Request: fold
Amino acid sequence: MSERDPLGVTIGAREIYDELVGMRGDVRGLSQHNEATRATLADHEDRLRTIERWKYAVPLTAFLGVGSLITALVQAGTK
Reply:
């Protein structure tokens, strides 16, 4: 150990460069994963908006179907 390096650890330029190259790869991977996540979220939002458009139509259709069934039964009973 020298006076300049009291802990005995020396990190050279090559080690720093190798770490930076590795981090660059990690950042690229995260960026690609982020884009894929955004595309998936956009798809889910589109699907939810489609469901929200039809949320009133389904109960109305069920109500009309039951009403038609009752009408058919009443007409069949009167004949």
Q: What stands out?
A: The first helix runs from residue 13 to 53. The chain has a mean pLDDT of 87. The radius of gyration is 34 Å. The helical segments are 13-53, 57-78.
